[in-house]
From TrEMBL:
This is NADPH-dependent 7-cyano-7-deazaguanine reductase. Its EC number is 1.7.1.13. Transmembrane segments: none annotated. Keywords: Cytoplasm, NADP, Oxidoreductase, Queuosine biosynthesis. Catalyzes the NADPH-dependent reduction of 7-cyano-7-deazaguanine (preQ0) to 7-aminomethyl-7-deazaguanine (preQ1). Signal peptide: none annotated. One of its GO terms (biological process) is tRNA queuosine(34) biosynthetic process. It is found in: Cytoplasm. Its main location: cytoplasm.
């Protein structure tokens, strides 16, 4: 299974999110609803206007169907945004849609908690619809931006 995957071998950071490959592995519990969470507290991209770095805390929750995302490939995908110029909304929603296209999860939500740009923090949230009924979904645990006060 790992011979065509990035897992277990040296892989350079993709030059862009479009070049990044998201590897997937079979879900060992495809008939069970459960939440898998990935947290990327040091996400960076570039402002498409100024070229300055933007920083975010990204939280991804999903209920797998038949597939799980392989974590090394997800890390490389997330790092590929470091030299990618896009608005906060494009990065956040684009990550969510890319994961949905690759994994076909039963449900996915993503929260992009962005640090201020021009003095205004911008938080972006997207999900695929209603989560499965009866599923325990914890709060994403990221406080709203409060500055130094």
């Amino acid at each position: 299974m790992t011979e065509d995957m990035q897992l277990g071998r040296p892989v350079p950071v993709p030059a862009s999110p479009d070049e990044a490959v998201l590897d997937r592995v079979p879900n060992p519990h495809p008939g069970t609803d459960y939440v898998t969470r990935f947290t990327c507290p040091e996400f960076t991209s570039l402002c498409p206007v100024t070229g300055q770095p933007d920083f975010a805390h990204i939280v991804i929750d999903y209920v797998p169907g038949d597939w799980l995302v392989e974590s090394k490939s997800l890390k490389l995908f997330m790092v590929s945004f470091r030299n990618h110029a896009a608005f906060h909304e494009d990065c956040t929603v684009g990550i969510g849609k890319r994961l949905v296209a690759r994994l076909e999860p039963r449900w996915l939500r993503i929260g992009g908690y962005w640090f201020p740009r021009g003095g205004i923090p911008i938080d972006v949230f997207w999900q695929t619809g209603n989560p499965p009924e009866g599923l325990w979904i914890p709060d994403q645990g990221v406080s709203p931006y409060r500055g130094r006060g």
